């Protein structure tokens, strides 16, 4: 069967978003002589993390931000990482701090996230930012959920009243994207590994956000015809290729619109990280 769904071009949307941020960065530099600074902390040498951090560094530099990667050895202790974060918190030139996840097992991730100044938490993961989001008074909002919403808003004329099903309940994606969908007046269901009749639940959705980390889990016949599908999954397959959480080949024959992997949510995540860095800059020292 031929693909019918509109392919949502996250790569193009992200490039456009970055170009706009680049123009803002240039204007800030011209007017104030200040350069927003994004600092990414990477502990250890996970190959996937290395690639992501290099990509964040490159794209931040491309739009004229001050982009610094702090690469720490895998043996870095929790106390040493906390000291690094305290130094970045205290440095006025640092607008955004992102600690690349996952961290080595000997480090308590929650303790590290809690130590980041919420005003510099461009990942939006600090409990203060998560709490603000849950209350509908957004501080810094997690990048991937923000990217999902921008793609949805450019795809659909209105989100109000639509049935949205989020598959996955992670702190990084599932929970925050559900909050944003609720703010956009969707009727939101958060499904997860214990959900009964998952296919039936997903079939009710006008909007499906798949964020489970299980390759090709969501099949074409799980979808309501015409549904908008946002695939957050980025799974490395045995053949080396990337696949989403949605079976794209099947889903594209049923959905109204769908994000590809790669080229969908991933590039938007990084663009939204740059957006958040600018937001943090404005809130802290853009006044
Ligand atoms: N503190 C923290 N914040 C994160 O936001 C975070 C993190 N840790 N750890 C890892 C995950 C993963 N992540 C991705 C971002 C962009 C792409 C991306 O741009 N992907 C390209 C393909 C890249 C490729 O070819 O490998 C795409 O989907 O088109 C992927 C994955 C951010 N993460």
TrEMBL record:
Assembly information from the UniProt record: Homodimer.
Claim: Phosphoprotein is one of the keywords in the record: no
Similarity section: Belongs to the tetrahydrofolate dehydrogenase/cyclohydrolase family.
Location of the Tetrahydrofolate dehydrogenase/cyclohydrolase catalytic domain: 8-123
Origin species: Bosea rubneri
GO MF, one annotated term: methylenetetrahydrofolate dehydrogenase (NADP+) activity
Gene for this chain: folD
Secretion signal span: none
Pathway: One-carbon metabolism; tetrahydrofolate interconversion
InterPro entries: Aminoacid_DH-like_N_sf, NAD(P)-bd_dom_sf, THF_DH/CycHdrlase, THF_DH/CycHdrlase_cat_dom, THF_DH/CycHdrlase_CS, THF_DH/CycHdrlase_NAD-bd_dom
Keywords from the named record: Amino-acid biosynthesis, Histidine biosynthesis, Hydrolase, Methionine biosynthesis, Multifunctional enzyme, NADP, One-carbon metabolism, Oxidoreductase, Purine biosynthesis
Protein's UniProt name: Bifunctional protein FolD
């Amino acid at each position: 069967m031929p693909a019918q769904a509109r392919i949502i071009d996250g790569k193009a949307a992200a490039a456009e978003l970055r170009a706009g941020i680049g123009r803002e960065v240039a204007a800030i530099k011209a007017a104030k002589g200040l350069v927003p600074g994004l600092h990414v902390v990477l502990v250890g040498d996970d190959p996937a993390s290395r690639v992501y951090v290099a990509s964040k560094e490159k794209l931040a530099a491309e739009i004229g931000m001050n982009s610094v990667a702090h690469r720490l050895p895998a043996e870095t202790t929790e106390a040493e990482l906390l000291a690094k974060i305290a130094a970045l918190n205290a440095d006025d030139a640092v607008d955004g701090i992102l600690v690349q996840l996952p961290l080595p097992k000997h480090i308590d991730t929650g303790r590290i996230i809690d130590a980041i100044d919420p005003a510099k938490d461009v990942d939006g993961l600090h409990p203060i930012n998560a709490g603000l989001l849950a209350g509908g008074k957004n501080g810094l909002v997690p990048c991937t959920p923000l990217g999902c919403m921008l793609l949805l808003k450019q795809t659909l004329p209105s989100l109000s009243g639509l049935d949205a099903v989020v598959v996955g309940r992670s702190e990084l994606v599932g929970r925050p994207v559900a909050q944003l969908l609720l703010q956009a007046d969707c009727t939101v269901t958060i499904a997860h590994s214990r959900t009964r009749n998952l296919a039936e639940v997903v079939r009710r959705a006008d909007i499906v956000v798949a964020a489970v980390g299980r390759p090709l889990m969501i099949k074409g016949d799980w979808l309501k015809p015409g549904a908008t599908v946002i695939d957050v999954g980025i799974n490395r397959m045995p053949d080396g290729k990337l696949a989403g959480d949605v079976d794209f080949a099947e889903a594209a024959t049923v959905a109204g619109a769908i994000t590809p992997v790669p080229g969908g949510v991933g590039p938007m995540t990084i663009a939204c990280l740059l957006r958040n860095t600018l937001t943090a800059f404005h809130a802290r020292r853009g006044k």
